[in-house]
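Morning - 4'-deoxy-4'-aminopyridoxal-5'-phosphate inputs below, output right after.
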Amino acid sequence: MMTQRDTESTARRVEELIRPNIRALAPYSTARDEYEGELGIYLDANENPYENGYNRYPDPHQKALKRQIARIKGVPVERIFIGNGSDEAIDLVYRVFCRPGVDNAVSIAPTYGMYKVAAAINDVEFREVPLGAGFSLDGDALLAAADGQTKLLFVCSPNNPSGNSFPRGELLRIVERFPGVVVLDEAYIDFAAQESLLPELESHPNLVILQTLSKAWGMAGLRLGLAFASPRVAEVFAQVKYPYNVNGPTQRIVAERLDRSVADQVRELTGQRERVMRELSGCPVIRQVFPSDANFVLVRVDDPRGVYEALIGEGIIVRDRSRVAGCAGCLRITVGTPEENDRLIRVLKRME
Ligand code: PMP
């Protein structure tokens, strides 16, 4: 349990973790920051004055969208960062907290590849701690990999590519023990039986939770990712991001779509996932089907390249993860429409 005092001292610690140059930053102020009224003749931003639906700069702070997301997620506006995909937030946590060539980050492995790539781009050492048997989480091993220069700890739950969720209690224990910032990637949380850790944000100022509209919400093409954090961390992200990081058409289309529930579609996809898992277990080439809480299933086969190529030959493209450490022999298969899944299963059942 975190007491009020623990929470306040964590918030002070997080403030200290912010790179000194970022803490001292005088952020760029846009024309739209200086005048926020709605009506008038706008001669302040060197835009083309002829209206075509996108001649104006978009709201740099995405205020209307944040109000909608706050309502849907039950998280106050001041804790929300909206990015060009959650990949933007992954890059931002490095830029805000890690001094290039000095600090490091710890992560589980296997996991989503961008944590490592963003570390390399930012010249940050990336320490990978292998998951245990059945892709289980060993919190103590993760914490033991950290030292005085470890600023970030990445966990993804449900995890990509393994598909499993980690126990909530273990995730919280890591957040409470780790002296830096824990980035919990919940990109696939809408498909999971397990609840999000969003309600824990308030008492854990060192927790950053990533979500995205690219998966359950079906808006990967619009590029909109979310980070939920302490108001201070969300404020710093807003100062460091590019001024107009979420384009106008995206803000408009997402605002329209967010009011439509995706619950039925998510239920359909998780139902299809269970069916695909069951049917895959009966396919002769499949040696193992790993449990999944996401919209994809990881399977192990004897000849991953052969099965991958054979599926391509049938016009079905899956993701070959067999060269990823800890995923020998593994293919990752996204849950498709019922018709797409039928075809996948028919083709795999025929393979010897
Ligand atoms: N996190 C995880 C775990 C993912 O699998 C992905 C995309 N594959 C992302 C983040 C990035 O999502 P976005 O489209 O929001 O950039």
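Note: The chain has two domains: 4-29+57-257, 263-350.

O.
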